[in-house]
Write a structure and sequence with these properties.
Helix content: over 70%
Number of helices: 8
Structural class: mainly alpha
Distance between the termini: 23 Å
Largest sheet: none
Radius of gyration: 17 Å
Mean pLDDT: 88
Oligomer: single chain
Length: 225
Amino acid sequence: MHNPIQDLTKKEWLLWLGSLLIVILSNLVSGSVDVLTLVAVCVGITSLIFAAKGNVWAQILMIVFSILYGIISWRFRYWGEMITYLGMTMPMAVWSTITWIRNPSKNGNEVEIQKLNRKHIAGLSVFSVAVTAAFYYILHMLDTPNIVFSTISVTTSFLAASLTMLRSSYYALGYAMNDIVLIVLWVLASLKNPAYIPVAVNFAIFFLNDLYGFVSWKKREAVQG
């Protein structure tokens, strides 16, 4: 439970504050600031910065973000996003919190990175197919808008959350893929309601932070190895 702010480098401070500034400005420029969305994105960005440091506070903030994002998705009837974050991402973030606390690195300030083995890959493959099929059926029954992208979002979210729980450096790539899908989803939503343009911008910022997280974990993985 080490305070991650103490360990932020100048580059990470710049990335964190710059990301927050961009999302705040994008919301203000839109002319219709949604307080809930703005708070959720700020929490999400902070979570990603802490995740890049391998700090367990990232998972605690992800729990908060999942709740807020689930409410936002409910308002636009993106049932897939709502169900995914409240029914899957949030519980897995709780599980990841426990896993990360139980597996600290030697210096104790970050989680110990785990390399995937064949059993992990096989399990991820099987469960990803099962989750995709199950959620597609559920989303179809709920008449979810943009069902193809919503289903892909479920799959990428599952992979990202699972890799986070497994303490794999590839968790960040999973979230980066999910960010791309979410950018598409919210661009489509903004075609109906321009107020959602800032949400698409928000996930573009998430994408950049997740790429940084992957690079950061890979460097730390080499050191831990």
